[in-house]
Write a structure and sequence with these properties.
- By secondary structure, the chain is mostly beta strands.
- It has three domains: 79 residues, no CATH class; 130 residues, Chondroitinase Ac, Chain A, domain 3, CATH 2.60.220; 77 residues, Immunoglobulins (Immunoglobulin-like, Sandwich).
- Helices cover 0% and strands 50% of the residues.
- It contains no helices and 30 strands.
């Protein structure tokens, strides 16, 4: 069933068709006003048929079981958000959470996950706009595990960006600071994918690398790695009591490419990526801290 915690204005109510566990907007436009919450209760699919449109300026709550089905090139728009909760209590693969377009995979349980999706561009440095889609991924990172994230977008959401230039970023707040994640773009599939240990917070796609320190996402007493996107060198600096004893550089598939045992401890090292092709890399420090690098 569906229920509205506050009033839902549906100008074309007759366009909604309820059959079994699917509610379909067959035609016309559904507008959810600001301040309005539409709650879908139970294992219900909310399908938007091709040609129908939904403008969400409020909140669509999908809860723990409902799923959204959107037509190709016809995503929900508006200033509001969609929200879903799931309990990923076992290893999972290619889980498109509630149909919201953020597909997750992990080799272990992640536990409770809350996904929020919005449709207005976010800004980096106050001036650089993202595409017209963002997510908030609220989940506790699992020590020793990484999360594979595939971010789906529609061409209508590119906001003037070239799909081939898109790079996924994360930030603790929707205003930043944004941290570039080594990304793989599949233009035809309209996907940008990353592998990241978390935390994840806000995720969106920018048409260029927004380069900031990684220290917001790591223990402040450990290391600073800058820049995380580079054409050649990366400098690693110990910022606390732990010195740099060992570093290893891996490809995105896990192959060991380079490394060094310092036979002691160092405050700072420089790692040269110029000999490697463009792409994503993983830097491991002292066998236990991992960072994502992008060779441009």
């Amino acid at each position: 069933m569906y229920s509205a915690r506050t009033f839902l204005w549906i100008p074309l109510l007759t366009a909604l068709n309820m059959q079994a566990q699917t509610m379909t907007l067959q035609s016309g436009n559904l507008t959810i006003a600001s301040g309005t919450t539409v709650e879908l209760v139970g294992p219900l699919d909310f399908e938007i048929a091709s040609g129908a449109t939904v403008v969400n300026d409020g909140l669509i709550e999908l809860g723990t079981e409902a799923t959204l089905i959107e037509p190709a090139n016809g995503p929900i728009t508006g200033a509001g958000t969609e929200h879903a909760l799931r309990d990923l209590n076992a290893a999972f693969n290619d889980n498109n959470i509630a149909g919201l377009g953020l597909t997750l995979s992990m080799n272990s349980a992640l536990g409770p996950v809350a996904i929020t999706r919005g449709h207005e561009p976010l800004l980096a440095n106050g001036t650089i706009p993202s595409i017209a889609r963002w997510y908030r991924l609220d989940a506790a990172p699992v020590p020793g595990e990484v999360l594979d994230i595939a971010f789906h977008y529609e061409t209508s959401e590119l906001n003037g960006a070239s799909a081939s230039d898109l790079v996924m970023h994360k930030a603790p707040q929707p205003t930043g600071s944004w941290y570039a994640l080594p990304s793989t773009s599949q233009v035809g599939a309209q996907l940008v994918s990353v592998t990241d240990p978390g935390p994840w917070d806000y995720l969106t796609l920018f048409p260029q690398v927004i380069n900031v320190s990684v220290t917001e996402y790591t223990d402040a007493s450990s290391f600073t790695v800058l820049p995380t996107a580079t054409i050649d060198r990366v400098q690693v600096t110990a910022t606390g009591n732990e010195m740099i004893v060992k570093w290893e550089l891996f490809s995105a598939t896990g192959a060991l490419l380079a490394g060094s045992n310092t036979h002691g401890s160092e405050q700072s090292v420089v790692i040269d990526l110029s000999q490697f092709p463009a792409g994503a890399f993983i830097l491991r420090l002292n066998d236990n801290q991992r960072y994502r690098l992008l060779k441009l």
